[in-house]
């Protein structure tokens, strides 16, 4: 029986000012999905590793099966596929964990079925899985996990998704405090309406960040990492947020924000090597409030999900 394995990377969604419309992919971290043909029709998750027993096997709830089901529904077929999921990403971390599982499953299943879809055509199926995972069909994790690099979702209705350039020397530090925050909970604190002056500030920063990426202007990128829509409400869910931001900026980072819906924080930096003081500065703040933190250094992954 034919077997295919795929990898999909972790992602940072929002990138401060781009709530639900901007994200980028990370190197080294992600999820793996193996799909195997079987004779009897239907999808079945047969093993999940690395989730501490928390993820559902139920095909209506597991993001791998929800995504593949959406894809085969579109094709009008009902093949037999067994799915094995290996989680490299912590759940509820803000690193795009549910997205990486769905995207790896889609890339593997698409290959198993003889590639009926181009890579970018898999996006709607991954969005369907996000909707089941967190109640909102946001594409700012699945987009970059699938396609790699920096991704802009210009329009959800038309699914107009644009890959942005990644300046050389841009890299990221992820700070993952030791607790879980579910996206649905972290979305529930947000407001439905925003004041006009906040819309103006936010638009300026999104435009600034995108321009900074195109021009490789690190100072402009740094100035544009500001969010007045989600961060003010979510920062209270992350102890030490403002102190860590002050400390990492003093240590030479371009800026910091909440990775997706948190609690992981992303720090953008310029340079080909990690800036030594940044991780220590953040760890000291978290330690002072009694919170353990894992820190990872990563380049921006421009390849996205792929077959192994
Ligand atoms: N844009 C989404 C949110 C990302 O902020 O809720 C979730 O990872």
TrEMBL record:
GO CC terms, sorted: cytoplasm
Protein's GO biological process: threonine biosynthetic process
Enzyme class: transferase
Superkingdom field: Bacteria
Subcellular locations according to the entry: Cytoplasm
Start and end residues of each GHMP kinase C-terminal domain: 212-286
Keywords of the record: Amino-acid biosynthesis, ATP-binding, Cytoplasm, Kinase, Nucleotide-binding, Threonine biosynthesis, Transferase
Pathway: Amino-acid biosynthesis; L-threonine biosynthesis; L-threonine from L-aspartate: step 4/5
GO molecular function: ATP binding; homoserine kinase activity
EC number annotated for this UniProt entry: 2.7.1.39
Catalyzed reactions per annotation: L-homoserine + ATP = O-phospho-L-homoserine + ADP + H(+)
Classification via Gene3D superfamilies: 3.30.230.10, GHMP kinase, C-terminal domain
Function noted in UniProt: Catalyzes the ATP-dependent phosphorylation of L-homoserine to L-homoserine phosphate.
Similarity remark: Belongs to the GHMP kinase family. Homoserine kinase subfamily.
Name the record gives this protein: Homoserine kinase
Source organism (scientific name): Algoriphagus hitonicola
């Amino acid at each position: 029986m034919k077997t295919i394995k795929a990898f999909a990377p972790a992602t940072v969604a929002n990138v401060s000012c781009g709530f639900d419309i901007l994200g980028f992919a990370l190197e080294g971290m992600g999820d793996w999905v193996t799909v195997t043909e079987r004779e009897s029709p239907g999808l079945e998750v047969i093993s999940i590793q690395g989730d501490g027993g928390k993820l559902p096997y139920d095909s209506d709830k597991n993001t791998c099966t929800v995504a593949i089901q959406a894809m085969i529904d579109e094709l009008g077929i009902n093949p037999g596929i067994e799915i094995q999921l290996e989680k490299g990403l912590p759940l509820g971390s803000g690193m795009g964990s549910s997205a990486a599982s769905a995207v790896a499953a889609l890339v593997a299943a698409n290959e198993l079925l003889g590639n009926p879809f181009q890579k970018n055509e898999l996006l709607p199926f991954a969005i369907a899985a996000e909707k089941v995972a967190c109640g909102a069909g946001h594409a700012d994790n699945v987009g970059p996990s699938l396609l790699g690099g920096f991704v802009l979702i210009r329009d959800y209705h038309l699914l107009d998704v644009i890959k942005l350039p990644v300046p050389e020397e841009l890299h990221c530090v992820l700070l993952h405090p030791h607790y879980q925050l579910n996206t649905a909970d972290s979305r529930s604190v947000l407001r439905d309406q925003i004041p006009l002056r906040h819309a103006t500030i936010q638009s300026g920063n999104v435009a600034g960040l995108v321009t900074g990426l195109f021009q490789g202007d690190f100072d402009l990128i740094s100035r544009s990492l500001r969010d007045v829509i989600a961060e003010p409400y979510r920062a209270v869910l992350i102890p030490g947020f403002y102190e860590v931001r002050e400390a990492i900026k003093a240590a030479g980072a371009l800026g910091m924000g909440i990775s997706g819906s948190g609690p992981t924080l992303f720090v953008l930096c310029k340079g080909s090597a990690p800036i030594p003081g940044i991780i220590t500065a953040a760890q000291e703040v978290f330690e002072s409030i009694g919170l353990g933190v894992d820190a990872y250094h990563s380049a921006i992954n421009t390849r996205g999900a792929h077959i192994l």
